Amino acid sequence: MNILITGFMPFGRETVNSSYEAVKRLPQEILGCRIRKLEIPVVFGEGASMVFHAVREETPDAVLCVGQAGGRTAISIERVALNLAECRPDFPDNAGNCPGGEPIIPNGPAAYFATLPVKEMEARVLKLGIPAELSCTAGTYVCNDVMYRLLHLLDHEYQGTRGGFVHVPYLPSQAAGHPGRPSMAEEDMVRGLEACIEAVILTHNAG
Fold it and tell me: Is the pLDDT confidence value at 207 over 80?
């Protein structure tokens, strides 16, 4: 079994992105399955394009994309991606794009549900004593854009590949620059993501 896991480059005024900081520390192999890591840009369309290229190159059995959500207190396992791209005028993506509420894919479905075993992922993270939750909103920024486009691709071209998205909080070093914002230790993020991947593998093997 091959698994592709992605994290994002820094964006806004941040110098690091907790998602890729955690992803890059994952082992190269988990439960005998090969893990391929990929860092993608925080740019509408472009981040997903890099994921598409990796999927077409390797045809993984599962794809787990990871993003940073600075206000969250737990590892958030996303259940749904919306066909909606929107951001605040004062917070464009890293290329200066700021969509105003248009569909990601015209005439595409209103939403896609993750095809990874989200409840099993949550349970396995919680078993480690690490905060985790199921989330029904991946937002409308680049994280949602990547999740929606990925699930659209898999639904149309790679129906044997499962896909989904996880958000992680700020690292403590980032939260220090955002008073009052929660954070999570990098080690816990890494352990939590590894537990998510284990759940994906075990569910796949059981099926």
Answer: no
pLDDT grade for 179, boundaries at 50, 70 and 90:
confident
Does the annotation mark 120 as catalytic?
A: no
Is residue 78 flagged as an active site residue? yes
CA distance linking residue 202 with residue 89, whole number of Å: 43
Asked about 204 being catalytic, the answer comes back as no
Tell me how far apart the alpha carbons of residues 78 and 54 are, in angstroms, rounded to a whole number.
21
Kindly tell me the burial class for residue 28, based on how many C-beta atoms sit within 10 Å of its own C-beta (0-12, 13-18, 19 or more): exposed
> What's the pTM?
0.97
Q: Are 81 and 147 in contact (CB under 8 A)?
A: yes
Which of 21, 46, 78, 120 is catalytic? The answer is: 78
Element (H, E) at 165: strand 162-168
Output DSSP code: residue 108: -
What value does the mean pLDDT take over residues 197-205? 95
Q: Which residues pair with 68 in a beta bridge?
A: 168
Catalytic residue among 65, 122, 167, 196: 167
The catalytic residue among 46, 143, 152, 196 is 143
Rounded mean pLDDT, 165-179: 95
Other Cβ atoms less than 10 A from the Cβ of 4: the count is 24
